[in-house]
Amino acid sequence: MDPTIFKAYDARGVVPDQLNPSVAARIAGGVLAATGGQLFVIGHDVRLHSRALTEAMIDTLVAAGAEVIDLGLCGTEEVYFHTGREQADAGLMVTASHNPAEYNGVKFVGKSAAPLSQSGMDAVRDWAISDTPLPVSARPGRVLAPADAESRRRVYVDRIMEFAALDNLRPLHMVLNAGNGCAGPVIEALTDRMPPQIQLSLIHGEPDGSFPHGIPNPLLPDRRHATAKAVRELAADFGVAFDGDFDRCFFFDGEGRFVEGYYVVSLLAKVMLARSAPGTAIVFDNRMTWATEAAIAAAGGQAVVSRTGHVFLKRALREHAAVYGGEMSAHHYFHDFYSCDSGMIPWLLIAQLVGESGSSLAEHVAAAQAAFPCSGEINFRLENSKAALARVEAAFADAGGRRDNIDGVSYSFTDWRFNVRLSNTEPLLRLNVESRGDAALLAEKTQVLRALIEEA
Predict the structure, then answer these.
(1) How far is CA 280 from the centre of its chain?
(2) From CA 441, how far away is CA 445, in angstroms rounded?
(3) Euclidean distance between CA atoms 142 and 65, whole angstroms
(4) pTM assigned to the model
(5) Judging by beta carbons within 10 Å of its beta carbon (0-12, 13-18, 19+), is residue 122 exposed, middle or buried?
(6) Beta strand spans in 8-157 (E)
(7) CA 106 to chain centre
(8) Which of 114, 116, 95 is nearest to 15 (CA)?
(9) What is residue 456's predicted lDDT score, i.e. its pLDDT?
């Protein structure tokens, strides 16, 4: 087994060279050893090899005497939800989210849908790569109620619908692009629950692991065209696109323009603080911060900055009893959803906001976009990312800015700031730049940083 498939908070690799049913079985054995658990929740995404990997994990756990709730095809957040609701010992989701089709992986949560600790992840890895035989019990376990998937989906839909009050809104029309991933069946279930004045138009809704319209990763500009076009052609109020396992959602305004996830975080922070006690904490990642800090201050909340990544956001939410946490990469976390991320709850909340206020999504984010223009995340695939990061550090070491090392390197100056960091999941260097209301300065500084990073 290639130990490099174990990342900061999941496992991910190319199928079948790095990840295959025998490797998946070893990973399941590692989770069993690390948790000592007896009840596990497992689900998988739409990738063509996901079910075989899932079955290998189920077989391993059942042979060892454990009980397994098999959710089948589902979203990552459904595994999180049922792990918490069923008080399972761990949840495992077979997915590679937005990675190319040849990839797959496993996302892990432990008791109460909390992320595995670093020592827990290390224990999974160490057992999986060892020569320890797979455990076999004299009394095999079982798969619990495999035919009950429909009722489990219904319970999950009931829960996410509780986050938003939609019955008395003005008429709304939303385009939802499932990207041929896992989101389609959930959107269909939600469509049946919508009040009559709310219209949902689902595109690319059929789950299809061949991804006929391309890998669903709306962070890539060339994966946004279908949603933007549908919003314009159908004159929708706004659009939403999902990644493959729908733990992320991406917004488009009524003109089909992509809304940077950064501004969605600040908007949802205001929404959640409006229904919370003064001083309630909001957690956000440190890549871009000024718009979110301003929104939290205006709404009377407490700002908590976290390292990027779902493990770190979830821990911070629990530690600070935060009602909401957001990453500009479109992960949104909710205290009342086991402090886990959801791709469905955010657009329901935005629908309520737009429907109650009478203002469009574009109007709701316009002030933050003007006050804090940003570069969006710029990704660099380099031969030596660490050397590029070192060049940036050296160039700004004596520039007079305030530095922080929460994740990668950030420098803040009076009128602009930036963060540059190595990706936790891909061989990329990521750059984010923002300014205080100065688009020209933003462009200038972004170009300076690009040149430093790309220097031969």
Answers:
(1) 23
(2) 6
(3) 8
(4) 0.96
(5) middle
(6) 10-14, 39-44, 67-73, 90-94, 103-109, 142-144
(7) 14
(8) 95
(9) 62
* Three-state DSSP state, 365: helix
Together in a domain, 130 and 185 = no
Least confident of 11-25, 238-252, 423-437: 423-437
Residues 13 and 119 in one domain: yes
The mean pLDDT of 411-429, rounded to a whole number, is 91
Q: Give the mean model confidence (pLDDT) for residues 36-65.
A: 98
The CATH number of the domain holding residue 22 is 3.40.120.10
Name the token pair of 436. Answer: 């205080």
Q: Is residue 288 part of a domain?
A: yes
* 367, part of any domain: no
Query: For residues 245 and 236, what is the distance between their CA atoms, to the nearest angstrom?
Result: 24
335 phi and psi angles, rounded to 5 deg: -55, -45
CB of 194 within 8 A of CB of 201? no
On whether both 23 and 138 belong to a single domain, the answer is yes
Q: Is the pLDDT of residue 165 over 90?
A: yes
Tell me the residue range of the domain where 126 lies. 3-148
* Residue 275: count of CB within 10 angstroms of its CB: 10
CA distance 288 to 293: 10
Task: Kindly report whether the peptide bond that precedes residue 16 is cis, defined as omega within 30 degrees of 0.
Answer: yes
User: Token pair 């972004």 is at which residue?
Assistant: 446
pLDDT tens digits for range 116-163:
999 999 999 999 999 999 999 999 999 986 557 788 999 999 999 999
Our answer to whether residue 97 is catalytic in this structure is yes
Round the average pLDDT of the chain to a whole number and report it. 96
Rounded Cα gap, residues 53 and 20, in angstroms: 6
Q: Given the residues 22, 50, 97, 360, select the one marked as catalytic.
A: 97
b/e map of 69-100 (b: 16 or more CB within 10 Å)? bbbebbbbbbbbbbbbbbebbbbbbbbbbbbe
Question: Do 220 and 293 have their domain in common?
Answer: no
